[in-house]
Specification:
Largest sheet: 6 strands, parallel
CATH superfamily of the largest domain: Succinyl-CoA synthetase domains
Helix content: 40-55%
Radius of gyration: 23 Å
CATH architecture of the largest domain: 3-Layer(aba) Sandwich
CATH topology of the largest domain: Rossmann fold
Number of helices: 20
Distance between the termini: 49 Å
């Protein structure tokens, strides 16, 4: 096999486009692998990990395009480069019914559209969102790096106009059954959700769906909304908005963490609705005692269960398969070596990573979750990481979309002699990779063939049978390569803690 790296100076391409292009070229005859990326430091690390990094790649800037290919000696490098360039030129973006040159034209041309979706560099978001809100449209903003001052100003303006400002940094919402960002296909029903947690919203809504329940609306507000100084400004408005729907019979409110003022503001708005309310704010027992009539939950799983019961649905999903878990524990207790004792958590969902860390800590495990610490390997032991953190996604598609980074990190975990358990999530739905578990399963199968004492792997699949990827099929692909799949993220974390604690005895 030969390796060749080309640099195209000052040629920007979208990370999603490049991911698809890399996958396509990797399937050409005589191509072992192709990685086409922008020259960011994160992407250079990926090239190094797959053996396609040299001085040429090192010289690329973040504005340069790197084309790295491993190919058979039967192919001519010049012809290969020409074919890749041609492929880059002819590939089209999805056909659109209409295309507008700017937001003003789009607002004028689509007068019936009620929501404007913004995914732009953070410094450009404020004027775009302000224009949309002023025109009377709700805004769903996926973008990062928007200043906190701009966020507060935009949310105040939206509230004045009785509109929703979902974000910035909002990963998912469902309005009248229509998903925005990363969202799952869930049935309509009685439960309304307001969330400052993207993957948390997905976990709760999918658990509700798989139990036979349904969702009226699920509003994401962005990860900073429930923190100071925003203090639940849009969460309180979203509570009002969701509760005004005649379909909503129960309210669920989620946040990774919440300031005292945010809790006060949002629960005050919730109590005015006169609806049953379930919240997961990671609050203390003392805080919970101050809010009579509010049902508190400690995990997304518990949140879904309590909301289902309040809405009159059976909480029918199985939180634990006792027989299967017992067999899995016994197998790994006897199989794992004494030096295998650590957990490696490789998550695509930030809130799911946080929940797993919380559960492991509650079971006596010292867990590190700092992404920089993980990346630099400055700590040993139980490491859980959100691979969707900005530390990992600079110049690269989110791991919901691009599964390659996870496969590389799984390989690292297999090579670490201290790792006993790899704990993961897989998230399905609109916007996500069409077959995420297929690539993960393939990586695990290859690694298992070369690692006799492989770590145990526990995974949860966040999705529904109605998601286009197919929930049952995705689970089955993982199970076929020896991955233990649980019904919820919380259940996966608890099972992991049980195994680790049993190994320490």
């Amino acid at each position: 096999m030969m390796k060749k790296i080309w640099i195209k100076k000052n040629e920007y391409r979208d990370s999603l486009f490049l991911m698809k292009l890399s996958n396509d070229i990797s399937n050409w005859p005589g191509i072992q692998q192709a990685v086409i990326v922008m020259g960011t430091e994160n992407n250079k690390q990926i090239l190094e990990q797959v053996g396609l990094f040299d001085e040429t790649a090192s010289s690329a800037s973040a504005d340069d395009l790197i084309i790295a290919v491993e190919y058979s000696t039967e192919r001519d490098a010049s012809d290969l480069f020409r074919m890749i360039e041609e492929d880059m030129t002819v590939k089209k973006k999805p056909n659109l019914e209409k295309e507008y040159k700017n937001l003003t034209d789009a607002l004028n041309g689509e007068k019936e559209a009620r929501v404007v979706v913004i995914s732009a560099p953070g410094e450009h978001v404020a004027p775009l969102a302000k224009e949309a809100i002023t025109a009377g449209r709700h805004v769903f903003c996926f973008s990062h790096h928007v200043s906190i001052e701009d966020e507060i100003e935009l949310k105040k303006l939206a509230i004045q106009k009785n509109l929703l400002m979902m974000g910035p940094d909002c990963g998912t919402s469902i309005l009248n059954g229509i998903g925005f960002g990363f969202a799952n296909r869930v049935r309509a029903g009685k439960i309304g959700v307001v969330s400052a947690s993207g993957s948390g919203l997905q976990e709760v809504t999918t658990l509700i769906h798989r139990s036979g329940g349904g969702i009226s609306h699920a509003i994401g507000v962005g990860g900073r909304d429930m923190k100071s100084p925003v203090d639940g400004m849009m969460s309180a408005k979203a509570v009002e908005w969701v509760s005004s729907s005649k379909e909503t019979g129960v309210l669920v409110i989620l946040a990774k963490s919440a300031s005292a003022q945010a809790v006060k503001n949002v629960l005050s708005a919730a109590k005015k609705t006169k609806l049953p309310v379930v919240v997961d704010f990671h609050t203390t027992e003392e805080d919970r005692s101050k809010h009579e009539g509010v049902t508190f939950a400690q995990t997304f799983e518990e949140c879904a269960q309590k909301a289902l019961r309040l809405a009159g649905y059976p909480a029918s999903f199985s939180a634990a398969n006792v027989v299967a878990e017992k067999a899995w524990l016994e197998e790994n207790q006897s199989r794992l070596r004494p030096e295998q004792w650590a957990v490696r958590g490789l998550f695509a969902g930030g809130s799911l990573c946080g929940e797993a860390a919380q559960i492991l800590r509650s079971q006596g495990l010292a867990v590190e979750t700092d992404p920089e610490t993980y990346r630099k390997r400055q700590a040993a032991g139980h490491l859980l990481v959100d691979l969707g953190d900005e530390v990992f996604t600079e110049g690269r598609a989110h791991p919901f979309i691009d599964v390659r980074l996870r496969s590389l990190e799984i390989a690292k975990a297999f090579s670490d002699p201290s790792v006993a358990v790899v704990l993961m999530d897989v998230v399905l739905g609109w916007g996500c990779h069409p077959n995420p578990t297929g690539e993960i399963a393939q990586a695990v199968k290859k690694l298992s063939a070369h690692h006799k004492n492989r770590p145990a792997i526990v995974c949860t699949v966040c999705g529904t049978p109605d998601d286009f990827q197919g929930y049952a099929g995705q689970r089955r692909m993982l199970e076929e390569v020896g991955i233990f799949v649980t019904d919820s993220n919380a259940s996966a974390a608890r099972l992991t803690a049980r195994l680790i604690n049993s190994l320490r005895r």
